[in-house]
Design a protein that fits this description.
Chain lengths: ~325, ~325
Amino acid sequence: MDNTRVVLSKRPEAEATPDCFTVLTEPVADLAEGQVRVDVEYISVDAGTRTMLRGEGFHQQVELGGTVLAGGVGKIIESNVEGMTVGQAVRGPLCAQTVATLNAEYLEPIEDLPGLPLSAYLGALGGSTGVTAWIGIREVSKPQPGDLFVVSAAAGAVGCLAGQIAKKDGAIVIGIAGGNRKTTYLQDQLGFDHVIDYKSEDIGQRLKSIAPEGVNGFFDNVGGAVLDAVLDNLALRAKVTICGAISQYDHMDAVTGPSMYLRLAERQAQMEGFAFFHFPEKIPAATAELKSWLLDGSITMPEEILEGIERYPEALQFMFNGGNLGKLMVKP
Amino acid sequence: MDNTRVVLSKRPEAEATPDCFTVLTEPVADLAEGQVRVDVEYISVDAGTRTMLRGEGFHQQVELGGTVLAGGVGKIIESNVEGMTVGQAVRGPLCAQTVATLNAEYLEPIEDLPGLPLSAYLGALGGSTGVTAWIGIREVSKPQPGDLFVVSAAAGAVGCLAGQIAKKDGAIVIGIAGGNRKTTYLQDQLGFDHVIDYKSEDIGQRLKSIAPEGVNGFFDNVGGAVLDAVLDNLALRAKVTICGAISQYDHMDAVTGPSMYLRLAERQAQMEGFAFFHFPEKIPAATAELKSWLLDGSITMPEEILEGIERYPEALQFMFNGGNLGKLMVKP
């Protein structure tokens, strides 16, 4: 049996372009004690991956010549481990490849339920996506009914769920996204109260018109100019949640800090950062509630899936160019 | 009777240098209905004044040709208002001048107590100094016993009190200040646990050595590189309080935001801003406790006083060059 994998052949200097990656096909090794083999069905494409390609930093790093780190779901096709049977669906660090061979302790068995495709475990139920959105809204942002609540990268996997959960909690949700396809989807399909197209509109002017007294909350996935525009329009005692900063991941050595941060002092406002793994005790509740909402249809996670492992580098670039709507995955 | 006042004759482009100001002497006008006349004893010199010289922005602005706005204390020498008697000590927006003529409703009568010079009402008991430090520590930072707690501009009027109050509350206090005179004073006279001289030491390296697991709290008055160095050394769930940003007041149109702000997400940390006037209900308690600490000698506010109204521009420049230790005032 062969495995086809995407390896990092050159560290990106700015944008992670497809020429930084090579696709290799090799026969798989024999299964060692404690290992299982997984047929990868979906590979998650994540903004955070960019920070793992630098060779240094806070996040786990991809080695040069190593397979690109990525979460995935699939089914066990060979097992040396009792209790991990062939056919079991699993989620884990399967990486950007067609067949993953790894120690069973890294894998989490998942339920293959009717009405819930395995891809949902990377999107609406994924740790860095749906669970991040749930924890960010319920444990950090905590929007109150009637709050004017802004979400950036609102058509992304985290943002579109964060906005839907904030709406469930009674907030008036303002989504910032790029391009008509995304803003129309957010307003018409997901019921966002207001949408701002940062590619064609001035965020600050729109916010001043929607929220003359300022916005009460902001869930930021973008950083840079978007963060500054919202900071400049905070209401008194507003709360800003820092979830991510996709505009900065290309140049983590020289992040542009929010020049409007002194609005925090002027408006007695807060900025709080988090990652879902800071709240391990909340993950089961988050997952259970997200699953019930998915099954009753009260939330939607749009998915975009590129087919073919060789398209993983293209998918990563597509994400950084703001192309995808909802959860982006590769189906090897 | 003549009044000598400092007027803004040119808006500063960067640093507020003495050539931006003119000193004028003119006879005072007759007292109108509702007015009192005050002999100004002390004029407060504040970092925040710089933001009032721009001609636009969040803060109240000084007009070109207008008297520089400043808080002051003095005694009533003439009164058209019942209940405001000659000899009464008052505090208010007396501005940078020798004799203030203004409506009585802007003035707050203060007690002229033995052991408490009137200058204390601008320093340890001042709204933007002692009261700001008390509210910032007690209502925003809330350091816990044993916390490693950093204060920047620690030898300034706000910083030196913030550090002393944090120590009263059980924190291990690390002061950042510039130059041997200040760091020695903080350590020897005020009992700060650690001091870092930003002019001769690398803040990040010193913090890594004092607090290998990171610091739990930070009370920032400086911004810029100092803020970034501390953000880079936050412990999990640390809290950063934004009180001021003296490094940025010269160029409020192009504030350098903290490029290390993503540490907030990595460390699940918070940044919260405030001004003392956001907590009007806490001012009486803050003032009463500060007054009792001053009288029992358990806190100290160093004061530096330049004599002569014509020295106000020089005093402002001295503050921005980091010259003063404690509260800086002009005695006209």
